[in-house]
Amino acid sequence: MPEIAEKDLHLLFELGSLGRLKRNYALHPEAPSVAAHSHRVAFIALMLAKLEQADMHKTLYMALTHDIPETRTGDLTLFQEPYVQKDELKAVGDMFSESIFSEIIDIFKEYEDRETLEAQVVKDADVIAAEMEMMELEELGFRYPSYWAEERKGMKDRLRTESGKKLHALIKETCPYAWMKRNPNSYHQGTYGK
Fold it and tell me: To pair with 148 at 20 to 30 A between CA atoms, which of 1, 127, 135, 166?
């Protein structure tokens, strides 16, 4: 049985910081945290993995870790990226080498290379999750996503899997809050306002 090292304990606390780190691309206080984004990406990736018949275990591992280096590099806006050189592979290596999760280094490399079906599925899930986040911010009245509407149309061309393309098209036609109205609620049960 492997031992739990002090580095592993520190890593668990570091990973928790993703819940406090906001996604910065949207420049909005209501933008989700990196942890919330990664959680959604994991479920989208699992859905796409089932549809594409990809390895579910590897896909989930990759999806959960795709933005992990942001604890050290931050989540740069598209305005900051041209001026900053971040080394995510070094961050992942420093975080996970000699830890109980050392295999994440190779999984992260595979994701960055985008050559395997699992890596393509996870990148599609990442793109779709970002689009969903923008749609939710639009529904809250934030105008930034509509400013980028033309560029966002081109995101579908970056999707690599057929399932990702289909899911993206369906997402674009769905109201982000329709799930509230369709599911059981006190209004439909006749108890709202009583």
Answer: 166
